[in-house]
Specification:
By secondary structure, the chain is of the alpha+beta class. The chain is about 25% helix and about 30% strand. The chain has 14 helices and 30 strands. The strands form six sheets. It has a seven-stranded antiparallel beta sheet. Strand 2 and strand 3 form a beta hairpin. The N terminus is likely disordered.
Length: about 600
Amino acid sequence: MPARSLSPELSLPPTALIRNFCIVAHIDHGKSTLADRLLERGAAVSRRDMREQMLDSMDLERERGITIKAQAVRLHHRAPGGAEYTLNLIDTPGHVDFTYEVSRSLAASEGAVLLVDAVQGVEAQTLANAFLAVEGGLEVVPVVNKIDLPAADADRVAVEIAAVLGVSPGEVLRVSSKSGAGVDELLAAIVERIPPPRGEDSDPLRALVFDSYYDTYRGVVCYLRVRDGRISTGDRLRFLATGESPAADEVGVLTPRAVPVATLGPGEVGYLITGVKEIDRIRVGDTVTRADRPATVSLPGYREPKPMVFSGLYPSDGDQFERLREALEKLRLNDASLSYEPETSRALGFGFRCGFLGLLHMEIVRERLEREYDLDLVATAPSVAYRVVLPDGREQEVRSPQDLPEVRREILEPYVRALVITPSTYTGTVMELLREHRGELSSMQYLTPERVELVYRVPLAEIVFGFFDRLKSSTRGYASLDYEHDGYRAADLARVDILLNAVPVDAFSAIVHREAAYSYGRRLVDRLRGLIPRQLFDVPIQAAVGSRVIARETVKARRKDVLAKCYGGDVTRKRKLLEKQKEGKKRMKMVGQVEVPQEAFIAVLRVDAD
């Protein structure tokens, strides 16, 4: 929790001495490590308190070595002339699933440091982030990182970056975020190249909420960027989108520790606490103004993120349904790209159909719910959103396999425009892999004699389930992938249902291409046979398309030794006991419920990955 005492030394600097920028890059190109070096130079953190991945505050980020949430921090930089600049840095994620976090960070900045690995060179997310920054009108500072590695080729990579941005290779900076070499030159370039924020102190207050989270004791905490005017502690505010009018209990800046200040002015980035406890009363992308002198025009917010993958999340204990609802509400405050709606399953009870930007996003959300809110969850097989043309010509969106109508004219499948950058030696391997996933080549271009850019049109379902892992393993980790939505197309699809003891289990249903239906059903029943425990009766596991069974396995009954107490005597006595046992198992089979462990539901995810 932030301290209560105000800090007069953190007074408002003139707008001309403020620089707002973010660091964008492909995965594992050194964003968080560079942020650590900038924190050291900006004296934001003492040497005693410094640790690696300082801005990655979540346990998941530190365990996986990736950035999941964008983080803001205020730095100070003294230029050679003596002027002291205030630098507001936002460290962003690099994985394609978290592009929405990057776009929000760009909207709160005037410049972006584009970081590229001196060994790997320009990769798919490098291009995607560069184009996002240019489209947003930001000043891009290109940087080659990891120049201290033995295999680094900074000159070659500088030429690649220059070709993408249309600048000269001499404008590309060289740094080592590990050793700190070149970081001082980077700070000077940030001050020199990135323009100061625009905004008038005398105008009505307009501040953009670019992130938020829920604090149990203080309610909703907003991160905001002030565009015009001034926000002070005690001001009566108004949120233009929701119409709420709370008071500003506390405003402050992040250093990265939360430090209260008396006021925030034009161009500054900080936090706001209003004491609001109702989560739906404050939204990311809203504009904050003062109630006594309100602004009439709100700031441009953010485009609503479109979920790409849908999965059902159910509490393993049905009594935890309300706790799951509250946890999703609080998590959505911190992750605006998460969507959810209630649904029911005959197998799992009450839960939520959740929308994610990708499988990694789905995995992170599930782990956060289990760790941060102490929930035990079961996730159903992920699926993408299809469109079904009904007999009367109307279109219906289908997000769950069990919602697929039996009577339909055709099914439309979502496609993506996939950009793959790979070393030229693996071009044939990558093209064959994409062909196996029903990809269609759109263009092929050699960025350099050693690197190829491939653009394919591929069904989204083929990309999100296990494709990235296969791409990395088949190219020894050198290929990179980025994709964006590219419309719908009619496809020959079928729903594969799994029946346990002749009862359909809707949580196991999946929509797959008709040609792959048999192989998918066969793999799943084989895996379930090893996971479902033996009952006191035979359990048939069947995969079916409509009324036609395409694969079957049987979990044999666990058998009690009813002859254990027979020490000889007439054989007819033994036969009578066995017949009695057989009749009992028949009755049990008619009323028996099959016990399905949680590992069986996880197995469906692994089948998709395979």
